[in-house]
Design a protein that fits this description.
Length: about 850
């Protein structure tokens, strides 16, 4: 049998043959606690009963299960030999009847990689916590099933757990006679079933809604985390956003929340941001803040809460048929997260964050060699795993924002309402959505889809301004360009904004026009005759998805007056455009860094400021000419220290500059300041050096040899928690020692003893931009190891290793050549592995072009 990697063709063949009536799943998780005996993995008993129909009696098919052992298999009362029908990932089902019952008794393995049934032991108190994570296809690690999204079914779970534990699943549960039994679910897909179990700290609330027809909806709410995080858990704010979101979606979707209760679990060592399991949403526990964070962190958490809530309708109620149409849930949830954030919560500037942060992710992904249309060609599960990317999420959401501008918000929302009612508890493809939008908008959605959903690449829009003799605009046009590899010129609904400085020095908009840009050049007739602009912003208000360029006058204005631009969204769009120009080797890295140092201190949006910090560090590390790299780093550190001292006492800006200064610390004076802030001999009024900030200060000290193992161990003794241990591992791995790097490499590449979270922490510490020479020998080792790692380890760990250990800091032509040589000699490697290496190669090539641009600017 082909193994774990289910193909689209296999899934379609199975869906045509089978339909599932229901599952009964019984799990015994009592083995999660106590000593583990034996050399094999720690396991639990999983007994699954599946009732299903077969359209062609006598035919053969298979069920999915990844487990160390199968004790018994029964099909329609016939006992099958597990050794004959189970190959480690599939159970062969022959001579099927019209109506079938399959019973599988298996020993499934607890996970340490965040896939399947993850088991975590809290070092603080020794407590064990369990949770499941399945997307796209890891439910088969917990129970036997038909693991594809279009074979939906209702589920009944029952769980035996250690005494004193609580267990949660998608449906409401109760404990009787030592067994947790859960209400049957609505028909849902395997990947969104869920079990959470352990001594979690649990808080409850309730949502109530009375609709216009007088019907009442009551939803029990719950939120949970590890007991060790309970002192930091602001459940009231989680519930506030949850209730605001439920109100918003009920107002706009006209379809009551369909899954009963609404629990939200913040769990340890989580690979994702969150997962939309109906009735039991799981989040990474880093959304519980142990120290002071900026408003941007709370906004980010609220956005994720709302994103997952939108999935209850887009994804859970109505699900894509196969992963080709993953965008039908992720793009919508990403858009709805920002849409509801602005419309329902205190985070009314959410579209600024969307423009500055989410679109940056999309722009990068859309220029990689692995870019793909929003509705993608997903051949198998490995393809699906990698397509949870910036195209499917952020570009898709950006395109939906453009669609709202194209068809109108009312038509868009009415289309969504019809979509839910028409396809409730079913599966859909692209055409199902387009048909309802055509009904509600009267627009030709086929043409729009061909341009936006079925082609890849990002267009660039540049203004052209011709002035008349009187100094007014004679003609203003927008020039559209596309990459040679993806030449599609799309229709764009844009607002073109004209800005100039006032007598008081403020740079503000004085004219604008909303228009459709089509083809290579579009004249904006409405702006003829207005006074000459100092800045033209061709995607003002951020309606479309494009890279914005500037004419020479606009760029000169931004160099001198970017900080005087008063509109925060326009300012964020300008910063984003300047960063895209830096990545495209159109603006030298030194110029971008100087713009950040000159104007970032005046940035009022904290999320934009933190994004600028990340971009500036990347400009210094990756895009600056090697001969200028040290100077750029010192300049950034010096500027960060100046801004830290100038920031308002106790302000978010002060905290952001403190963290940034730690990131870019480069000189003895920087290390002295960080050390003094740690030991309290120096204080900055208003800056609270809490435990999270202490670790942020310690990492650069460790990486530069200022803080040794003894000092790091002392800090761990101060913070001997799960979070503290992750920080400790990262800081230990950051030390500038050949022996340390060799140990890290062995722990991550040659062993599977570390959990997913500690693999991530070790990789983060290993790869330090200040240690290029020290880690140079691992470039050759990387190319020798990655195919074996990909074959032997789980896909999540494989992705972490291949992405995280790529020798990006060995940014030379020789590394590019070595990458090309590996690709040329491994044409038969797994396509998903090749994709990851191709993406890393593209980032490296882009960095080299940026460095050449930066070097040329000094001539």
């Amino acid at each position: 049998m082909p193994g774990e990697n289910l193909t689209r063709d296999e899934a379609r063949e199975r869906a045509a043959l089978l339909s599932v009536d229901g599952y009964e799943v019984s799990l015994d998780l009592r083995s999660a606690v106590g000593e583990h005996s034996g050399d094999g993995p720690r396991t639990f008993r999983s007994v699954t009963t599946v009732r299903f129909r077969c359209a062609e009696p006598g035919a053969s098919s298979f069920a999915d299960l990844i487990a160390p052992a199968v004790t018994a298999v029964s099909l329609n009362g016939r006992d099958l030999d597990p050794g004959q029908v189970f190959d480690g990932s599939r159970i062969l089902l022959e001579d099927l009847a019209a109506d079938n019952e399959l019973v599988v008794d298996a020993q499934c393995a607890y996970s340490r990689t965040g896939e399947g049934m993850h088991r975590f032991v809290d070092p603080e108190d020794g407590e064990v916590y369990l949770y499941t994570q399945y997307e796209p296809a890891d439910a088969r690690r917990v129970y036997a099933n038909f693991e594809q999204p279009d074979l939906k079914a209702p589920y009944r779970f029952e769980v035996r757990a250690p005494e004193g534990w609580t267990v949660w699943s998608n449906g409401a549960g109760e404990l009787a006679d030592g067994v947790w039994r859960f209400a049957e679910t609505k028909p849902i897909s395997t990947y969104i079933t869920c079990v959470v179990a352990g001594p979690y700290h649990y808080v409850t609330d309730r949502y109530e809604r009375v609709f216009e027809d007088g019907t009442r909806l009551e939803i029990p709410l719950g939120a949970m985390c590890r007991k060790g995080l309970a002192p930091h858990f602001d459940a009231d704010d989680v519930f506030l956003v949850t209730k605001q979101g439920l109100d918003f979606f009920h107002d706009h979707f006209d379809y009551p929340y369909p899954f009963g209760k609404y629990d939200q679990a913040f769990v340890p060592e989580y690979n994702l941001g969150a997962m939309e399991n109906p009735g039991m949403v799981t989040f990474r526990e880093e959304f519980i803040f142990r120290g002071k964070v900026t408003r941007a962190s709370y906004e980010g958490r609220a956005n994720v809460i709302l994103h997952e809530m939108a999935h209850m309708w887009f994804g859970d109620l109505v699900t894509m048929e196969w992963w080709d149409d993953l965008w039908l849930k992720e793009s919508f949830a990403d858009f709805m997260g920002a849409f509801s954030l602005v419309g329902a919560t205190r985070f009314t500037d959410g579209w600024i964050t969307f423009a500055n942060r989410r679109k940056a992710w999309a722009y990068r992904a859309d220029q990689l060699p692995s870019t793909h249309p929003i509705t993608a060609d997903i051949r198998d599960l490995q393809d699906a795993k990698l397509n949870f990317d910036g195209i499917t999420y952020a570009k898709g959401a950006s395109v939906l924002k453009q669609l709202v501008a194209y068809v109108g918000q009312d038509a868009f929302l009415e289309g969504a309402r019809r979509y839910f009612k028409r396809h409730a508890y079913g599966n859909t493809r692209l055409g199902d959505l387009l048909s309802v939008l055509e009904e509600t908008s009267g627009r030709d959605m086929a043409a729009w889809s061909r341009a936006w959903l079925e082609t890849a690449g990002v267009n660039s829009l540049t203004p052209q301004v011709l002035l008349g003799e009187d100094g007014t605009v004679d003609e203003l046009a927008v020039v559209q360009e596309a990459a040679e590899s993806h030449p599609e010129l799309r229709p764009h609904r844009v607002v073109v904004g004209l800005y100039r400085r006032t007598d008081s020095g403020i740079l503000e908009r004085y004219a604008q026009a909303e228009t459709d840009v089509e083809g290579p050049r579009t004249v904006v007739a409405e702006l003829a005759g207005v006074d000459a602009p100092e800045l033209v912003l061709v995607n003002d208000e951020d309606l479309t998805y494009c890279k914005t360029r500037f004419d020479a006058t606009s760029l000169a204005t931004l160099r001198e007056a970017l900080g005087d631009l008063t509109d925060p969204l326009a300012r964020a769009l300008c910063w984003s455009a300047l960063w895209n120009m830096t990545r495209d080797a159109l603006l030298p890295a030194r110029d971008f860094i100087e713009l950040v140092l000159r104007f970032a201190g005046r940035e009022t949006d904290i999320g934009v400021l933190q994004m600028l910090h990340a971009w500036a560090e990347s400009a210094a590390v990756h895009y600056t000419a090697p001969e200028r790299r040290e100077q750029a780093g010192l300049r950034l550190a010096e500027g960060a220290a100046e801004q830290l001292r100038a920031a308002g006492e106790g302000s978010e800006q002060q905290l952001a500059w403190a963290r940034f200064h730690a990131h870019v610390a480069a000189a003895p004076a920087d290390f002295e300041l960080l050390g003094s802030l740690l030991d309290g001999t120096v204080t900055l009024p208003g800056l609270e050096v809490d435990q999270e900030l202490r670790w942020a200060f310690l990492e650069p000290l460790a990486a530069h040899g200022v803080a040794d193992e003894k000092r790091l161990d002392e800090e761990l003794a101060r913070d001997d928690t799960a979070s503290g241990r992750r920080h400790h591992v990262r800081c230990l791995a950051a030390r500038p020692s050949e022996a340390v790097k060799a140990q890290c490499w062995a722990q991550v590449v040659e062993s599977d003893a570390l959990s997913n979270a500690l693999v991530e922490a070790t990789i983060a510490g290993f790869a330090q931009s200040s240690q290029r020479e020290l880690i140079a020998p691992y470039a050759e080792k990387y190319f020798g190891a990655i195919e074996r790692v990909w074959t032997e380890r789980s896909i999540q760990i494989g992705m972490d290793v291949v992405r995280g250990l790529f020798p990006s800091y060995q940014d030379s032509q020789s590394t590019l050549d070595a990458t090309d040589a590996w690709l040329a000699s491994h044409e038969d490697a797994a396509p998903a592995l090749r994709r990851l290496v191709l993406e890393a190669r593209d980032d490296l090539a882009r960095a080299l072009r940026g460095q050449a641009c930066d070097a040329a600017s000094a001539m």
